[in-house]
Amino acid sequence: MTDRPRGPISLEPPEGIGRLRRERLDWARLYFVCDALPHGHEPEPMLRAALSGGVGMVELRDRDQPSSVIDRVARTFRRLADTYSAPFIVNDDPSLAEELNADGVHVGQEDVSPAEARQTLGPEAIIGLSTHSLAQIEAAHEQPVDYISVGPIWETPTKQGRPATGLDLISEAARSCRLPWFAIGGIDTQNLGEVIAAGARRIVIVRAVRDSDDPRGAASALSGSLEAAVAADTGQSTAG
Q1: Which of 13, 97, 198, 204, CA to CA, is 20 to 30 A from 126?
Q2: CA Rg, the chain, in Å?
Q3: Which DSSP category does 70 fall into?
Q4: Pair 57, 31: CB distance under 8 Å
Q5: CA atoms within 13 A on the CB side of 87
Q6: 173-213, pLDDT tens digit by residue?
Q7: Residue 146 in contact with residue 124, Cβ under 8 Å?
Q8: Rounded CA gap, 225 and 118, in Å?
Q9: pTM above the 0.70 mark?
């Protein structure tokens, strides 16, 4: 079972940089969301460790730092994302994503709509959307989004007040989602096997890498498990 994309929904066929961005999205299995100053430090060491360990997509998510800090660290996100051929995404704000030269934006159900984000950023940008129910997953197919996140599987302090969806929604996504999708919410090296067994082949992580004593090792372990699951799917498909 794989979740290879069947073509993103957009205003027009992607060309040039849009095609490159979507090719990179296609390859991404491990998606790292990072604040501007992880544990109060400049983000470069953390991002470099995560990306060298197998992270394929990075998101800058920080509502607390002033714009001067966001502007500065965004240049680091952009540079390292380019170095490792990873999409660079900004959370919530399409206009900010445009200002920071990001590859796209990730919006929630209560943020600006994907259509508004697409209008701001244009057809070449990557648009992601959070989903928390089967109805929202199904509705995403009718919106101009390139990927979705599904969860949170378990309650997490990074999304306080958001009820856990459990693994059943991951199984539903594996059966029905036609977009690239990432499981999210409390995933780490200890429970990733359950998430994979439920059908996920892409995940979003925050604390599992950011709070690890060995961010590169944590990213490598998570990425390796995902790639092994994809390889096993391919082998099963070939054998059948």
Answers
A1: 198
A2: 17
A3: H
A4: yes
A5: 33
A6: 999 999 999 999 999 999 999 999 999 999 999 999 999 99
A7: no
A8: 33
A9: yes
